[in-house]
Amino acid sequence: MHTPMGLQQDSTVVMIPTQIGDIVIATLYSPLRSKELQEKRQDFIQKSPNYVIGGDLNSKSPVWGCKQYNKNGKILENMQEQYQFTVAAPNKPTYYP
């Protein structure tokens, strides 16, 4: 099955045509060391003016309530600043090592 923006693995994408342009809704899973998926996430955001992304992005940042950063968190935080979107994260941890 073809999905928008080349996302095929670990994602589900729905494109809804509207009068103002397509609205893309995607769920993504980003493993902690998935450089390819990080690149796809950035490509997706650059190409889609109307989008909602949800999922398990494994992105930790104090900006959205985590106690520490991880690499994915820094990437997502930089993208958030660059593309001006909102990150809505749980208010407590979802993983306890």
Automatic annotation (TrEMBL):
Which is one Pfam family of this protein?
Answer: Exo_endo_phos_2
Residues covered by the Endonuclease/exonuclease/phosphatase domain: 23-96
Q: Cross-referenced SUPFAM superfamilies, in alphabetical order? A: DNase I-like
| Top-rank lineage group of the source organism | Eukaryota
Record's protein name: Endonuclease/exonuclease/phosphatase domain-containing protein
